[in-house]
Each structure stands twice: as C-alpha cells, then as structure tokens.
Amino acid sequence: MSENVSDVWKMVKIKFSNSPAQLQVARVLLRYGLGVADNSVYCGGMRVSDAQIAKEAGVDRRVVRSTVKTISKDKEAKKIFEALRPVVFLKDVATTLGLGVIEIIPQDASKPGIISDVTGIISDAGISIRQAITDDPYISENARMTIITDSKISGDLIEKLRSIKYVESVVVYK
Questions:
Q1: What's the topology of domain 91-173?
Q2: Side-chain half-sphere of 65: how many Cα atoms within 13 Å?
Q3: How many CA atoms lie within 13 A of 31 on its CB side?
Q4: pTM for the complete prediction?
C-alpha cells in the first residue's frame, strides 16, 4: 500500500465501513494522534481511557474497546495506528508568548501549492515561522492551516495571503 494519506483514510473507511460508530472512534484517534498498542490507546506513552475517547467520539465506551480490538487484529490498520504520535500545538498559547498566529482557511484544502504559497509570502516578508500545522483534508472537516510566527503579521501581509489562489479567508489571532 502506498503511504499516501488519502490511501490511509480510504483504508480506515473500508475497515470500518460496517460500523459508523467505530469509524468515528478511528477518526478521533487519527485527529489526536492517539496510538493503539497492546489492545490499549496511548497518547505518547500514557494510556488513555476508553471512556474519554468515547466521550470525544460521541459513542459508548464499548465501541472504543471493539474498535481497538479491530485495529489490533488487522495487520494493516495496526501498522498505522501503532505509529501515531501526538504533536504540541502552540496556537492557544502563542499570543501569550508574544508570537503571531494566523489561520488560513482554504476553499479546497486538497489543492496543491497552498502551503508553499503561504509560507513563501511569510518568508519573503522576513518573518520566521515557528510552527505550521495543517489539518488533513481527508480526516478533518473544514481543514485549515495554522501558522505560528516569531512576530505579528501586518495588514499588508494579510492582504497578500488573502490574494492567494484557493485561500478563502485569513484569520488573525491577537
């Protein structure tokens, strides 16, 4: 199987096609980078309770347990879910740290070139990017790109970002 993310999401959807509730659990695991090993769910090295995952997924905890069992028994799914890792996301603390935060909302997040166009404009302005996180358009509804910069973004730069093909809007956090 190719390592293309859309292929991964297609595979997950196929594996759970007979159980929308289990698919919802799998989506939560992917969104948060929660791994599955030894018939348990982990955030890094910490075990996460079935009840917490169930609450986030809007399902009964037994659905989480059955999803974990399904993943653990399937060689292909197991390989993917064992490798998931959570990532530090600075968005909610960036302004407290004096950093800039902008969110790019694309018209279609699966179109190529959005990331390079956005980062190119920011780089050309001489602003350093501390973090760039994009939602996967195959996993997240309303996928967006969040950029954390060393300094605040000027109005001129915001207008340049808004003019990029496939960018629907730009949100600046203060």
A1: Alpha-Beta Plaits (3.30.70)
A2: 4
A3: 15
A4: 0.76
Give the list of residues 6+ apart from residue 61 with CB closer than 8 angstroms, or none.
Answer: 50, 51, 53, 54
d(CA 106, CA 100): 19
Q: Where are the domains of the chain?
A: 5-82, 91-173
Give the CA-trace dihedral at 153, 157, 162, 165, to 10 degrees.
-120
The residues with which 102 forms a beta bridge, in sequence order, are 147, 172
50-57 helix and 61-73 helix, angle to the nearest 10 degrees: 100
CA distances 34 to 9, 15, 156, 160, 172, Å, are 15, 18, 39, 36, 29
pLDDT digits (tens, 9 = 90+) for 95-138: 999 999 999 999 988 888 999 999 999 999 999 999 999 988 87
